[in-house]
């Protein structure tokens, strides 16, 4: 059991301490923003007492996903790059749809 714990401690040190640099810091910051989208969505849903996806969700998705994409490109991780790149299209499209909906609602109010 001591060998397992020693091996785990060595692995944690290798992964979280020895590899730490500016890119890893960027990755953690990006992951924080990406995670905040779920917090924002959860708080909005609790407040409304129903499932809600606020616009802030899409902005956190875009910002966090964009930073994670930069991180993935720097790390040359094809799976991570493909996943984050696809997400970027979805986040931008949702923000575009929201902007169009708001524009149409504003024009309806003017008429």
TrEMBL record:
Residues 26-97 form the Lipid A biosynthesis N-terminal domain. The chain crosses the membrane at residues 20-40, 52-73, 79-99. SMART domains: LAB_N (SM01259). InterPro entries: Lipid_A_biosynth_N (IPR011499), UCP028440_lipidA_biosyn (IPR014546). Keywords: Membrane, Transmembrane, Transmembrane helix. The keyword Membrane applies. Pfam families: LAB_N. This is Lipid-A-disaccharide synthase N-terminal domain-containing protein. It comes from Mesorhizobium shangrilense.
